[in-house]
Design brief:
Number of helices: 3
Number of domains: 1
Largest sheet: 13 strands, antiparallel
Organism: Fomitopsis schrenkii (Brown rot fungus)
CATH class: Mainly Beta
InterPro entries: DUF6593
Order of helices and strands: EEEEEEEHEEEEEEEEHH
Helix content: 10-25%
Structural class: mainly beta
Protein name: DUF6593 domain-containing protein
Length: about 160
């Protein structure tokens, strides 16, 4: 998946064939900022409300479920050094985003002992290998396992990136 531009608040996410899969838009409100994630059918699949008056008052609505704080929807790791965040899918399987520190590659792994990441994010960068330096867009690479929960992986990624940036 390609993010154009590399901005988790306002971006268009396309498939390898150019089809638009998601559109992300943020708007200022009187009480803060709201980010909405739209799918290809232009339906809102998730939203994130950030409060301007209270720090860390971030609330998530995913798939028309009840509003809950971001820190409950995506829990922090027990180990404060790892800075990982984990979440569950609809059937209770657990996944963990790793790579919170600056400069590290962000990736998702499943908690079932599966060693390979199921999704990896690569930030946009300049391709210095060619005579003309051209920009390589940001990419979120998904395995078959991640494709099965693509909406959840994409939304959790976008909200984590907003929190980080």
């Amino acid at each position: 998946l390609t993010l154009t531009p590399d901005d988790p608040c306002d971006t268009t996410i396309t498939a390898g064939d150019g089809r638009v899969l998601y559109v992300v838009r943020s708007k200022d409100r009187t009480d803060g900022t709201q980010t909405e994630v739209f799918n290809a059918e232009k339906a809102v699949i998730a939203s994130l409300q950030r409060s301007d008056t209270r720090s860390h008052a971030w609330n998530v609505t995913y798939c028309h479920q009840t509003v809950e704080p971001l820190h409950k929807w995506m829990r922090n790791s027990i180990n404060p050094i790892s800075r990982s965040r984990w979440f569950k899918d609809e059937v209770g399987r657990q996944y963990k985003w790793k790579g919170q520190p600056a400069g590290s590659t962000r990736e998702v792994r499943q908690y079932d002992g599966y060693k390979q990441p199921i999704a990896t994010f690569h930030r946009s960068r300049s391709d210095r290998g060619s005579k003309r330096s051209k920009a390589v867009p940001a990419q979120l690479c998904l395995s078959y396992r991640a494709e099965q929960i693509r909406d959840l992986v994409v939304c959790s990624f976008l909200f984590l990136e907003q929190e980080k940036r």
